[in-house]
Amino acid sequence: MLQRNKYRKALLTAVIAATLVGCDQAASSSTAASQTPSTPQQGGKLLIAIDTDPNCLDPQQAGNNNSLNIGRQLTDSLTDQDSQSGEIVPWLATKWQIEDDNRRFTFTLRDGVSFSDGSAFNAQSVKENFEAIVKLGARSSLASTYLKGLKQIDTPDDHTVVVIFEQPNAQFLQATSTMSLGFFSPATVSASAEARCQGSLVGSGPFVLKQFVHNQKVELTRRDGYQWPSSLAAHQGESYLDAVEYRVIPESGVRFGSLISGQLDVNVGVTPQDESLLLAKNIKLLARTNPGLVYSLFPNQSTPLMASLPVRQALNLAIDRPALKPVLSRYQASATSVLAKTTPLYQDRSSELKYDPQAAEKLLEDNGWKKDADGFRSKDGQRLSFRISYWQNAPFIELVQQQVKKVGIDLQLEKAPISQVVARQASGSLPVDFYNLTRSDPDVLRTVFDAGGRNVNHRQPSEVDRLLLQSSQTLDSSARQKYVTGAADLLIAEGNAIPLVELATVIATGQNVHGFHFDASSRFQLYDTWLSAKE
């Protein structure tokens, strides 16, 4: 039996009204726009400013939003996800069947799809790509977790592929809508992981990669003959745009000035301080809260300092989240759970995130951490000090630094290039990691915290792993809600997740940009985007 309706009902019961808040805010905050031409126009190059080097372009490996927003243009997925309803809809798969208690997924593939080198997309392509992702292992930080427990993939014919898991895998259908499980040609699959990161990518998508120059630009051109967009697309045939160029511009003032002067069409790195100025200049702002894991601190229990539960709990109690609001975007909010409000099955856990500096100080005092002359705490000659390496535009982390200092915690900040931060996180040596992770499914928690997977906390298996596993195995919304909420509560109580701020993607576009919109994960697909003449 086709399972789309069942999945849709389960997901819709969990999607909260906040899902559309960001889009509504953006629509209402934009000042009067010039009249959009009634007919989309073909041609032109879309110039997009990004704030950091994408580092790795392969969406099967990458995890940061700039990389994934580029990778999305190069590849297609089996399914797509409606950003408003959460429904999973056809793309390269025209239909699917889910059997054996969410262990067996059978997809029927559409005809006539090919990669940009002319090779055919078929059931074997799905098998080769998915098996290659599993082999990538930790390099594939997102996609490999979506395929955890993969048992086998059968290809009875060119248009039928059967994906079978060892255990129930209810999250897999939504995962097939992500670019992380997008498809590349046999030549790409056989290339090295390093070569793929640097641009050896031949996909099935509406654009092809022309050039990648680190810390400068990424150039894409329209794919000739493209005829297989998602069922959510507004048109058929090739993309409207001739080309897309992403320019790496770290300085917010340069991005702002270039957009105002018309030298750029899109700024995907809008800073909070620029929002009012852009609106005053009649620049369109689009904003949406990213679903998934909010910006958080992730203590590493393999380090002596963060192996201490009282230290982790004190860190959580020392943070005044509502007080972070003054430095946030108007579209951002302080965290109220480990999950953002736009995530299916989110529940408000603000009561678990209370600000209580007195309780934090007592925990530390009771565990032998005494304040020194500088106001910081020490124990057995060791200062209560740790460093966070980060690359994101996150001014609120400086306020967090000031807040925890009041209870004697020495939080040191180091902003570094993304490649350095990723390498340090991968080494597992940092006492505390800092990031967010976007996905429109609560299984994002299992991706990050599963003791048998990424295990960001480097902790031993515990009750939270049982809850995360159970949440990934059932489509019963009430049961899944219980497991997800229980896991969130445990992660907070045990100090393994210290939520800070919900990420909101805020994008500014010129009045000549049309058809630019967010997908269900607050990322974008440029297939329907087009340009009118600049005024």
The general outline is: globular
Proportion in β-strands: 15-25%
Largest sheet: 7 strands, mixed
| Cα gyration radius (Å) | 23 Å
Name the structural class: alpha+beta
The neighbouring-strand order within the major sheet is: 8-9-10-1-11-22-12
Please tally the helical runs, counting DSSP H or I stretches of 4 or more residues: 17
Helix content: 25-40%
Give the tally of β-strands.
24
- Unreliably modeled segments: 1-34
Q: Can you give the mean pLDDT?
A: 92
Quaternary status: single chain
Distance between the termini: 53 Å
Descriptive account of the structure:
The protein has 535 residues and is an alpha+beta fold. Helices cover 28% and strands 22% of the residues. It has 17 helices and 24 strands. Strand 15 (370-371) and strand 16 form a beta hairpin.
What brief labels describe this structure?
535 residues; alpha+beta; 7-stranded mixed β-sheet; 4-stranded antiparallel β-sheet; 24 strands; 28% helix; globular; disordered N terminus
Question: What is the secondary structure topology, with strand pairs?
Answer:
Elements: H1 4-12, H2 21-29, E1 45-50, H3 65-74, E2 79-81, E3 88-90, E4 93-99, E5 104-109, H4 123-136, H5 143-146, E6 150-157, E7 160-165, H6 172-175, H7 186-190, H8 193-197, E8 207-213, E9 217-222, E10 243-248, H9 252-260, E11 266-267, H10 272-280, E12 284-289, E13 292-299, H11 309-317, E14 333-334, H12 357-366, E15 370-371, E16 377-379, E17 382-383, E18 385-390, H13 396-405, E19 410-415, H14 418-427, E20 432-438, H15 444-449, H16 463-471, H17 477-493, E21 498-502, E22 504-509, E23 513-514, E24 530-531
Parallel strand pairs: 1-10, 1-11, 18-19
Antiparallel strand pairs: 2-3, 4-5, 5-7, 6-7, 8-9, 9-10, 11-22, 12-22, 13-20, 13-21, 14-21, 15-16, 16-17, 23-24
